[in-house]
Design brief:
Elements lengths: L12 H13 L7 H5 L8 H19 L3 H10 L4 H4 L4 H6 L2 H13 L4 H16 L3 H23 L8 H4 L7 H10 L17
Helix pairs in contact: 3-4, 3-9, 4-8, 4-9, 8-9, 9-11
Amino acid sequence: MRSKNKKTRSPDSVKVALDFFAEAGLLKRVKRSGWWVAGIKDPESVADHCFRCAVIGYYIAHAEGVDPYRVLVMTLFNDIHEARINDLHKMGHYYIDFKDAEKRVFKDQVADLPVTMRAQLTEFRGAYDTQSTPEALVARDADILECLVQAKEYQDNGSPVASKFLKRAPGFLKTRTAKKLWDSLERWDSTLWWENVVKFER
């Protein structure tokens, strides 16, 4: 029987950090399953999505005049739970209540992190889930817009089924900036951007 006077050993903070980094790294190997449904053979990873989502969110945050730091954190950590329970496409969500599992996983993932970090991540996650702050609205728009950009890229590179993702998702955009970007994205050719960087010899 453990002595009541004996202190419970606290987790090794460095090991906790390294384990957390390794878990986040798993997202580099977790594929976005919705693209498999669309017939994409080698779809982007969750980490791929989160990175560009953060870039888009940072841009929209500045355009909308909200805190870009909060938006960056929300976008980078929004899908961290998928390291443990994988990415589930919309058909799966129709049959399984995935939201409760996401919340339980996230709570476990941050449980041993430093108090201030855990508190901030929990606060930001709650705001994102309830869409209760301007930053949360921007972060969600960035998440949607990244999916739309990716769909357009897949479409422009020969995957016509990806265009179906371009039909419904835009209706969920909230911010003026995200809607403006979407209006241009429809007519945008994602294969041409690099020609403005690389000047061909004539």
